[in-house]
Specification:
The chain starts with a helix and ends with a helix. Helix 3 runs antiparallel to helix 16, helix 7 crosses helix 16 and helix 7 packs parallel to helix 18. Strand 8 and strand 9 form a beta hairpin. By secondary structure, it is α+β, with helices and mostly antiparallel strands. The protein is built from 21 helices and twelve strands. A four-stranded antiparallel beta sheet has the order 3-6-4-5. A four-stranded antiparallel beta sheet has the order 7-10-8-9, with helices on one face. It folds into two domains: 361 residues; 164 residues, Regulator of K+ conductance, C-terminal domain (Alpha-Beta Plaits, 2-Layer Sandwich), CATH 3.30.70.
Length: 550
């Protein structure tokens, strides 16, 4: 039986994917290759002469890349611009320094160590385990018509890749034992700092006893408006009702308030002490609460002040949960697709509120295909636009790696455009991302496999591996020392930063295993978007500068 064309391509790609993903699950000293195993499976198949039609291979490689970077952009987009607030600026500057220093080391290899440009770019991408950087380098070398550049780049990437994973783990361990750092103490310090910066949203029952507020309507209490708390229900004469702005406070009333702890302490000073009853646990036929999810396009992007549910329907939004974080629902908060609202009010009006908000939990699991293809098409257009930068001999293009990434970040941050919602369920995102990176790595491995062993054994492979260690360790060690000694960055957060600067999920998993804390993943997510963009742009700028100079 002979297979040709698409059938042969699917068979070979499936074999490389299955073997590689199985290889990636093998754990050695607590470290797994993960999806990187697909690259080495492809190299092995290519070495033994198993291949596919070059056109099919090119399509699989580029299509996989587009799927991967678009899914990455969608997942990091909502938090991209918020990443520069508070500690985010310092973290992104350090992560950017890792990218710049690694790039400079790779440039030095080309200028002073006699390493060819394709090999230098491959070492750079492999030493930081960044696949989009590999793709961007291959694309710009193709644009510059560098002979055999794509294959050499892929081989150098594969040679430098293993230590790229190990080197970041060594950096974390050297930092820990060299300065005798305690991960558990770092976790406790992080939780204390986060509590101070992002107070937990709590509830409290307050009994009205302050004579200064008795007889005042809530509408007239200016200090209450400025406090940043929400009053959701009031108990009077044994019955509850949803709070309205026209409610007049009476001595002995009990109100249920929602807000940060420090604000609630101020509320006690204004209204009265903590009550002995809990309104949430008291049954009431007049007041109920439900969680509702925002899925209706007509309310997306509108603020709670504009929607005015309290004034128009007598319903109160006491809490908003977005991406796992509770937010105080002030008038300036804009609703986004997937927000979970706690609605308090008349039980009879709950169905109407559900209709206004959408409240279709199933919509969060559905995959909206139209926005995906619109976004990919826009990414292709953006990636093909020439960007003229001063000093470069020719224009830079974001290409297949950069265009879809930036478009996905912008669209997911935008949230919606009329009825089109730029939302992708987590399950769909993971499938799209994993399928894309698997196709890409399998294709790269198959193309690079023919001469890989010969390059490693008889060619410059071992030298490339040595230089890859320098590209991995020099930037990481310098930034780790600056972060710890000068900026006093939390150890676990610094580990997450280092993993994010290398866009290395295995390193993130290792950092998370040091202590029970969210510090590594938050730092990783903070720097990941910027690093990914820089990793895509860096090889293009380097290639255009050095090849043009040559």
């Amino acid at each position: 039986m002979e297979l040709h064309g698409a059938a042969q391509a699917l068979l070979v790609l499936s074999a490389a994917a299955a073997l590689g993903l199985g290889l990636g699950q093998i754990q050695v000293a607590g470290v797994k290759l993960g999806v990187g195993g697909v690259l080495f499976a492809g190299i092995a198949l290519g070495h033994f002469g198993i291949g596919m039609d070059p056109t099919m291979m090119a399509f699989a490689r580029e299509f996989g890349l587009v799927l991967f970077v678009y899914a990455i952009g969608v997942s990091v987009g909502p938090g991209f611009f918020q990443a520069f607030k508070r500690d985010g600026l310092a973290l992104n500057l350090m992560a950017g320094a890792v990218v710049v220093l690694g790039t400079l080391v790779a440039v030095g290899l080309y200028l002073f160590a006699g390493v060819s440009l394709p090999a230098a770019l491959g070492i750079l991408a492999g030493a930081v385990t960044n696949t989009p950087s590999l793709a961007a380098g291959q694309q710009v070398l193709s644009q510059l018509a560098v002979e055999n550049g794509s294959a050499i780049l892929g081989q150098a990437y594969a040679v430098a890749y293993p230590f790229g994973i190990v080197g970041i783990l060594l950096t974390m361990l050297m930092l820990r034992f060299g300065f005798r750092l305690d991960p558990d103490k770092a976790a406790a310090d992080f939780e204390a700092d986060r509590e101070a910066a992002h107070p937990t949203i709590e509830t409290v029952n307050v009994e009205i006893s302050n004579p200064a507020v008795v007889g005042c309507s809530l509408r007239d209490l200016d200090e209450l408006k400025e406090m940043g708390v929400v009053l959701s229900r009031v108990l009077r004469d044994g019955s509850q009702h949803a709070v309205t702005a026209d409610d007049v406070l009476a001595k002995g009333d009990v109100v249920l308030a929602v807000g940060p702890r420090d604000k609630l302490v101020r509320l006690n000073r204004l209204l009265g002490p903590v009550a002995k009853v809990d309104l949430k646990s008291m049954p009431s036929s007049d007041v109920a609460w439900e969680r509702m999810v925002v899925t209706r396009s007509e309310v997306l992007g509108k603020t709670l002040g504009e929607l005015n549910f309290r004034g128009s329907h007598g319903m109160i939004i006491s809490r908003v949960n977005r991406s796992g974080h509770d937010l105080v629902p002030d008038a300036h908060l804009s609703l986004q697709f997937g927000d979970s609202l706690r609605v308090v009010g008349d039980p009879a009006l709950m169905p109407e509120m559900a209709r206004l908000l959408g409240n279709r939990s199933k919509a969060l699991q559905e995959t909206q295909m139209v926005p995906i293809f619109i976004g990919i098409a826009l990414g292709m257009l953006l990636g093909s636009l020439p960007i003229v930068l001063p000093g470069l001999p020719s224009a830079v293009r974001l290409g297949l790696a950069g265009g879809p990434l930036l478009v996905a970040i912008l669209l997911s941050r935008l949230g919606h455009c009329g009825p089109v919602v730029w939302f992708m369920s987590p399950a769909a995102n993971h499938i799209m991302r994993d399928l894309g990176i698997t196709l890409f790595l399998a294709s790269v491995g198959l193309k690079s496999g023919a001469g890989f062993v010969d390059t490693l054994v008889h060619g410059p492979g071992l030298t490339w591996m040595m230089w890859g260690m320098a590209v991995t360790l020099v930037p990481l060690m310098l930034v780790a020392l600056v972060g710890h000694l000068w900026l006093r960055t939390n150890y676990l957060g610094l580990c997450g930063l280092l993993a994010g600067s290398m866009t290395d999920p295995p390193a993130l998993a290792f950092a998370q295993g040091l202590a029970a804390s969210e510090a590594p993943i938050l730092a990783y997510a903070t720097v990941y978007p910027l690093v990914m963009v820089l990793r895509v742009i860096a090889p293009q700028v380097v290639a255009l500068l050095l090849w043009g100079g040559a």
